[in-house]
TrEMBL record:
Belongs to the PrpD family. This is 2-methylcitrate dehydratase PrpD. It comes from the Bacteria. GO terms for molecular function: lyase activity. Residues 225-374 form the MmgE/PrpD C-terminal domain. Gene3D superfamilies: 2-methylcitrate dehydratase PrpD. Residues 58-196 form the MmgE/PrpD N-terminal domain. Pfam families: MmgE_PrpD_C, MmgE_PrpD_N. InterPro entries: MmgE/PrpD_sf (IPR036148), MmgE/PrpD_sf_1 (IPR042183), MmgE/PrpD_sf_2 (IPR042188), MmgE_PrpD (IPR005656), MmgE_PrpD_C (IPR045337), MmgE_PrpD_N (IPR045336).
Amino acid sequence: MASIADSLAQWAAELDPGEDDLALAQLSLVDTAAVALAAREHPLSEIAAGLPDAARWAAVGHVLDFDDLHLESTTHISVVTVPAVLATGGDARAYLAGAGVMARLGTALGWPHYRAGWHATCTAGAPAAAVAAGTALGLSTEQLATAMALAVPAAGGVQNAFGTYAKSLQVGFAAQAGVRAARLAQAGATADPSALDAWLELVGGAGQLDLAGPAVPGGRAIKVYPCCYAMQRPIAALRDIRHDIRREVRSVRVSTPKPTVKPLIHDRPGTGLEGKFSLPYAVATALLDDYPDFAAFTDDAVNREPAQRLLRQVEVTYTPGEEGLLTGEVEIEVEHGGPALRVRLAQPPGAPSRPPTDAELREKFAACGADVPTLLAEADWESVRALLGRTFPRTGTVE
């Protein structure tokens, strides 16, 4: 019986992308590049400057938490695979091969893996990056399976990192691990492909993968706010009623299935990064800011007195629901001295079933920098590779 690595490698080698697949790849490239460029002045861009290309570009592409998400696998699918492809001179097909493997591995790992505290972007990401890089390098089917096995030792990452630089750095480590594994396989390194099967079982995966359907089954969720995906729905819900609030807010009651807020580990955030993983701060920024952009997730914004006051007024109750970040719906009630305002929402803008509009994409890319929409209007893989190389050049060496 073929190992999981052998099956995935065969699927990747035979992948023949259709028009919808290629359109998805193009938006993934542009979206990933835009949010990386938005981090040009972020302190992490200097901290990570000594890392190899894939690690460096993935880290800066994730630090603002504005990159896309594959909901079924709970993975930031493009910020790992796009840098791995760019670092090895690949194209849309290499991206789709890696992203498709990542979606399927992450889905096989399932919600229990995420609930246990693993960062699935990193665990599923390292073997997937090996496929992305290996496809770009022209590896054979057997070499792709070997590369996945060689990436297994680096397939780790935990949610305790959320709210710190470690979260984006461990995403960078996953991308670079895949590139390293692919290059080693290309050079003739050997490994037992069944190592991927053993790893999947050890970290709680189901072990059965569905190789049917489009390259990336389920598509991706595109963020319209620069914070954890678990905050997109409550922010969007409150933005629908914020202009109806005429008096000082007295309390905000949020009712949601508990799995939908699993990543939101900071109830009393004190930094901008912690604010990106805080349900109470999702309420605060949605009510205080016209558009929760990068300025809403600075240390000063999180610590402003009105925001800190609102944090203390948020009450959260959990309702029954299936596992997943968009299970059920969120219901929010705002007491503000007049009749209580109530709102419910199931699908936020940017969800796969509610794709971002052209206006929402323009607003997002404009927030990433005044020149970003122009730079990315006709972006291709080689031009983006050159652009990231100029914007985030490697200075020094951190191996």
